[in-house]
Amino acid sequence: MLHTLKFWAILAAGSVIHGCSSGVAAPQEGLPVIDACFVSEAGSIPIKLEVASTAEQRSKGLMGRTSMAPDAGMLFKYRKPRDADHGFWMYKTLIPLDIAYLNGEGVIGSIRHMVPCASASGAGCPSYPAGVPFINAVEMNAGFFREHRIQTGDHLYLGAENCPTR
Known about the structure:
The protein is of the alpha+beta class.
């Protein structure tokens, strides 16, 4: 009987520890995915973007992802412009990302590199402010913008029909 009790106590403790350590969010389900492209002097780069347009979707963002396809990202859409001091953080985000902050015409105003935050609370994670007013933002894998020579002043076009061919 004592041996059985020890087994159940160890199993329960392990469950509690696992439950406390598994606070990483799972990827979001059911977000719309759209075709888009970045256009720069280097040409047109086709991408696929998950669209986060509600406060809850934007808050969760790419938390919990362990990888993302090279041409995939997330578009954060806002109804009203955000101030230059508004930014993003990497709480519970596991992969390094780059973020482009865009104006209403899809012009990139700034690009920031963001690294995963290992803090157990959001308060321990740095913020990456835009530095310019923006209404949309796009997160891509770290290095995407540099690799494709995309910089401030370049454009994001939504919908494959709006993307010029190379």
